[in-house]
Fold each of these.
Amino acid sequence: MAQILLVEDNPVNAKLATVILRSQGHTVEAVTDAVGARQVLQVQRPDLILMDLGLPGVDGYALTREIRRRPETASIPVLAVTSFAMKGDELKAREAGCSGYLTKPINRLELLAEVQRLLGGSTAPPGGRR
Ligand code: MN
């Protein structure tokens, strides 16, 4: 079980991702933009951030770069979840500091596999992983 920050401005996608992640026992904090994400990151240290790249205002690329720049959040894995499926977008996301990249529509098994990969074993509570 992990604490996950979800940054997604589309309510349907936010709901879907939240339901999928909670079904695995993860705790999900959902925000819709960079302002909300900064507020959460001031008081919490999530194990993983799910990042929609297309956000109103500061986009997901810029927000990821900001997260990477700040020492207190630099090591949190960021998983890009995006409908930008153009050639070069994945590279752009990785250059911004994303640790993983998934395209929409959200696929439950893909999302869970990538979340599991990025969480590794280190964030699991002792004895919490089977
Ligand atoms: Mn969006």
Amino acid sequence: MTEHRILVVEDNEDNMTLLVDLLVSLGYSVLSAREGQAGVDMARTEKPDLILMDLSLPVLDGWSATRMLKADPVLRTIPVIALTAHAMMGDRKRALDAGCDDYVTKPIKLTELVSRLEKYLPPKNGESHA
Ligand code: MN
């Protein structure tokens, strides 16, 4: 199993479906969680290669979940890319302040998502997801 594994933490079913379909079509393995605490727990057990983190989430929001991940010496190296609403400029700064490595704006654009994934996920064994 050499595919990169991406954990998507997203509570909106339409966004989750869109992201999972996109990521699978790009050749990634996808894990999913519907709220922040489940996302942190899954990151601990599954050690994904990258996390796409919605910010507005039930139980534990995306900012708090990211802070927990980045406070964990084992998990802090996993890139966390926030999913931020286009209109919410403040969300992006708060996301970076919370430790997110980067962000993509919703609605998700394929080119923007792919460029972020390629930036944080170097190809394994010379294969390319481009
Ligand atoms: Mn949400």
Amino acid sequence: MLKGGKKNGMDTFDIKNRLNKIPHIPKNIEVRYFDVIESTSTAAKSDAGRAECDVLYVARRQTAGRGRLGRSFISPEGGLYMSFLFCGERRAEDALKMTVYAAVCVARAIEALTGLDVKIKWVNDLFLGEKKLAGILCEGVFDTRGGICAAVLGIGVNLVGDLGLEIKDIATTLSEHTECVPSAEELLVKIVEELYSLSGERFADVLCEYRRRSCVIGKRVKVLKADSEYYATATDIDEAGRLVLQKEDGSCEHLMTGEVSVRLT
Ligand code: BTN
């Protein structure tokens, strides 16, 4: 359901107006605001074949928010749920790079508006203290020949409200850490601003900040793969954005994102 009406201080027109005032953001981004939607990323993926420019999907609430590895992303009112549809061909390995860029830019945006020190848990989670504040999901859209014809970058941030019993021990909201919680619209505009300015920075420089913000480097972690699980120490993030692990038998592994999950122990 596409809404022109104003809820939560946000609508398509307001968002577009605010983005248009920022010089380095392209003026032809299309904005689609939803009061409630299954998933902004699912909508973006299904529109990919028809879009002619970058499209930004924003929702006040999602009923079937998705995370990595088929997990759900609980998305009640009080959060920011946005997905960017970037048209144009990509390589599969761009997903990891895009996730790294996005994690740094969301962390920067939150820090700029609240002063809070946001940490990144490889590969796509943003943490405040011991709990998850935000998640990033970068997906490729495949064309009929199996090539990637577009990318969808989904970002979800918990701002205020009750996340529910299911995740309250592992997830947090900004309001648990500050009284000055930005509105969803303010944060959205700041994230888009950071995204377009950061995309001009060299990946190596962005990686330096990603490493500096990492809450995984130096920690003992549990690695969960489809067919195995083991403990290791995370020692670094390499030049491609892979997590470098020192295993208990002394061997070293560079972990790609994909069907793997890393838990702090
Ligand atoms: C994760 O935690 O693994 C990633 C979560 C990504 C959530 C965002 S919210 C907006 C967009 N729509 C979705 O369904 N997922 C992403």
